[in-house]
Write the structure tokens for this entry.
Amino acid sequence: MTRNGLIRAGLFFGVLITLPFFSTSQWLTNMFIFTLMYVALASSWNLIGGYAGYPSLGHAAFFGFGAYFTAIVFTDSVGYGWSPFLFLPVVGISAAIISIPIGYVAMKTRADVFAIVTITLLFMAQTLAFNMHKLTGGAQGKGIAVPSFDPATFGRPFYFGMLALAALAMGASMYFRQSKIGLSLSAIRSDEDKALGVGVQVNRVKVLGFAISVGITAMAGGVWAYYEGFVYPQFAVDPLITIGMVLMTFLGGRATLWGPVLGAFILVPAQQYLSYQLGANQFYLLAYAAIFLITMLVLPRGVIPTISDKIWLKKKQREAQA
Amino acid sequence: MAEEEAKRGAGMSTLLKVNNLVKRFGGVTAVNDCSFEVQEGSITALIGPNGSGKTTAFNIITGYLKPDSGTIEFDGKLMAKPTPSSIYRAGLSRTFQQARIFPELTVLENLVISSSFGWKDLLGTRVTAADRKRGMQTLEEFRLDKLHDLRAKDLSYGQRKLLEFASVLMSDPKLVLLDEPTAGVNPVMIETMEKHIRDRNKAGVTFLVVEHDMQLVMRLCDPVIVLDHGSKIAEGMPEAIQSNPQVLEAYLGS
């Protein structure tokens, strides 16, 4: 990591760590919990959707898996309130292991076919959640025991939980960029057949990337379920979650470290503002669609790649003049 | 000529052996009972009119296509279930007609990704000091070292061809299959390419070259194998091939 990169990351996380001690406003905490959740989700989606170019639309299935796993384990008691957080690694690793055969099969397909195959995964998971009554409570949902946190700062543990996951996802993203995993994934995105022909371990790398990606997504689902206190199939396995992760990554810039982060910081507050302004209806979805269309037309590669290319070009021109 | 034949026979062993390959696409038989051998240390040409099955044969040898029947032996071993990856790792690398490189990666990274690193290296640094040293050496040999941090998509077509050639050498292959290495590049670049093939051949790399530039084939290659309608119709030294009636008929039509 460069010195500038370290300073950027230090500032970013420094501000976010101290933020709850300046404001205990509930709506602000709530908004940041969701923003950080989407930083984690979009950054983890970017690992496979951005770096490898495999546009998964099934990540919400793993989000739901994490939510239900946590809800089922902690439905009666959460002890002092910390156990669900400590349980997260189990959730993440389980999701990653389950995803290995799924990823292996799904990634036999590419591009648009892969998107369709993974979206069926989402609907399969939702159907399972609706119908496995004994385990999930079906349409009645599944509750989690309420922790005995101080009501004045009730959101704080969830805020830090999401912040930790955002850091984990961004850390994974950074690690991918600097390791041969990321190099291999970029080669796969560029030309997968050629990558096969120069001995890149295509299948292994893809499945590994997919597993890490959905593992982090499932952990975010766990914290979300605990924060919400109740898990319903239509909200835990929600196509909107998938769309949110994808849209934020596209908006900020695929295959970049900060793109998904920027996308989340723009879209989550915008969504909250719009749903407040436009009433409880899902009119904000129209705004979502509009943002997606405009992004694709004006900035097909997203904000960060477009800007960094402009800066790079300016620098080269200046060098050429000098 | 007999002396030369004897010289070629001595100290050379068969590196690649293609046995009775057949490949049909629907009703078209692209490769039809095709057998040939490539001797270690040679620069063998594979020529033939358009549609004679050269590229299909390449695709089968490198594991991109499954033959309907027939076998490939490489370096004395039968390739049972060849995949592009296993073939490359066994020491047989190839280039493509359309200079396939990774446009989003830098020039240096294009070499690193092709160095067939192991499973454990995946977790290691993207471009290690050792990768950089080795990559830059190869880039210097190909005079691409000044361009090492450019994205490969910013290279000219000829430079891409050179880069693809340089990158498939990173696995220290025994045999390199070149699919039209000089198609679409300028005359100076053709000479450059020829020089690099000769240099690497002297260093012990065997080549099998598909090429339409007959002057280059005649200068560079020995022996020349001629395919027509998916099977071998002739093989021999360039001079003999030039006057072979069957070859003339295949090229000029009958």
Remarks:
- The radius of gyration of chain A is 20 Å.
- Chain A has one domain: 25-321.
